[in-house]
Every structure is written in structure tokens, then in C-alpha cells.
Amino acid sequence: MAWALTQVAVGASYRSTAAMVRDRAGRPLEKRQGTGSNGKTKLPPATQHGQLVSDWVDVFAPVIWSAYAPTAWSTAVVLDEDTFKHRLGDGSSALAFYVLAFYVLGVMARDGRGCSIVAAVEAVSKLNAAAWYACSAPSMGSRSGSSPTAAAPW
């Protein structure tokens, strides 16, 4: 599990990491399709997905973060957001358009060694000061030191 968590921490996808974990355990996914007794295409016994690693991240990331999170915030943090949209319509006509699905808020800081860290990430439906506070307050409030100055993107 530690190896898998390290892989996703440096940017590997959940799906590729889960496949590598299975290979390392001597239990690779069966990727061949077959034909059932009724003549229909039979899917492989397992599909390639990242649920295995996703579950491990869900369970162990908070424990790891609490042990290794910085104990004091840097004097400045960077706030940023991005929008996630989805397309309405069938995509084949000029009438198809994108609508907002949600926002993702992110807070970056520096640890005691001066390395950039992701201090908080949260998906929200509305972009406003209350959303920013809800995203950053739990992580910032649990650390000692003065309140950081935020360099906001707006």
C-alpha cells in the first residue's frame, strides 16, 4: 500500500497504479475477452479501474497528512480555482454548450523546508468568500503561527 500511495503522490493515475499493484502481487488483470456459451462476447473477469488505490487513498491519506503536515504556516499562501464544466446536448450540433458543474479551490503553501505543498483542495458549487473560508479554515486553523497573507487570483 505504501508503494501505491507514493506512486499517486508523485502523479501516477489511480488506474495505472492499481494495475501495477496487481502485477507486483502476481495477480494481473485478465484483459482478454472471450465468448460465452451463448455466443455473446464475455468481458474479462476483472475490469481495469483504480478503485483499489482510491480506497487506500481515502483511508490512509488523512492519517499520513496528519502525521506529516506542517506545524506552522508560511507567511503567504496562494489561492487558486478552476471550473469544471460539462456539455449539454448530443455534441453533434452547434447548439451544444457547456454549463458549470462545480469549482475546485486550491490552497498552496510552503513547508518548513521551503517546498511547495498543497494545503487544501475542495470542490464547491459556489465561488465566494464563504467557500474559500470553508476550504482553508480547517487546515489553517489547526496549525500554529500567525494567519498567512493570501495571494488571491482575483
Biggest sheet architecture: 4 strands, mixed
Indicate the percent of residues in helices: 25-40%
Order of helices and strands: HHEEHEEEHE
Report the total helices. Answer: 4
Strand line-up in the sheet with most strands: 5-4-3-6
Overall mean pLDDT: 78
User: Structural class, from secondary structure content?
Assistant: alpha+beta
| Outline type | flat
Give a written overview of the molecule.
The protein is α+β, with helices and mostly antiparallel strands and 154 residues long. It contains 4 helices and 6 strands. The strands form 2 sheets. The chain has a 4-stranded mixed beta sheet, covered by helices on one side.
Summarize the structure in short.
With 154 residues, the chain is an alpha+beta fold. 32% of the residues lie in helices and 28% in strands. The strands form 2 sheets. A 4-stranded mixed β-sheet has the order 5-4-3-6, with helices on one face. Strands 1-2 form a two-stranded antiparallel sheet.
Could you name the key traits of this structure?
154 residues; alpha+beta; four-stranded mixed β-sheet; two-stranded antiparallel ribbon; 4 helices; 28% strand; flat
Task: Record the SSE blueprint.
Blueprint: H1 2-9, H2 14-24, E1 34-35, E2 41-42, H3 51-68, E3 76-88, E4 97-110, E5 116-124, H4 129-141, E6 149-151
Parallel strand pairs: 3-6
Antiparallel strand pairs: 1-2, 3-4, 4-5
Helix pairs in contact: 1-2, 2-3
